[in-house]
Amino acid sequence: MRILLLIGTGSFIGGVLRYVLSQFIQTKFLSTFPFGTLGVNILGCFAIGLIFALSERTNMSPEIRLFLATGICGGFTTFSAFSNETFSLMRDGQLFYASAYITSSILFGVFATFIGYSLLKLI
Questions:
Q1: CA-to-CA distance for 28 and 63, rounded, in angstroms?
Q2: What is the DSSP letter of 85?
């Protein structure tokens, strides 16, 4: 039960952070392209790379790793928003934006995870 509460609390924090940051980023662009969700997903991928590198490097408890990675990062970066926004772009006939969104989310997300992980492995 303790683990579920840790993950649930982390998910709450991550979800609120996702909403606030996504809205903040999106207001900076006058476009239907979902820059807010893209930015959050890239940042979340970077953060999870850092978390897993730290967990390998330190004596991070499994509970803390679950709170940070599964809870906060899981609540912060969900691809359900990605899927819905991609579908909406496709439905609205904006196939170029949909393709750009899919490609940039995957490529930059994996790259950001690698960079986050690698940064702490080098130190």
A1: 37
A2: H
CB 73 within 8 A of CB 44: yes
pLDDT in tens, 58-95: 999 999 999 999 999 999 987 777 888 999 999 999 99
Q: Enter the DSSP assignment of 87.
A: H
Tokens linked to 96: 């170029």
List pLDDT tens digits, range 92-105: 999 999 999 999 99
What's the CA gap between 98 and 87, in Å, rounded? Answer: 8
SS3 sequence of 13-78:
HHHHHHHHHHHHHHCCCCCCCCHHHHHHHHHHHHHHHHHHHHHHHCCCCHHHHHHHHHHHHHHHCC
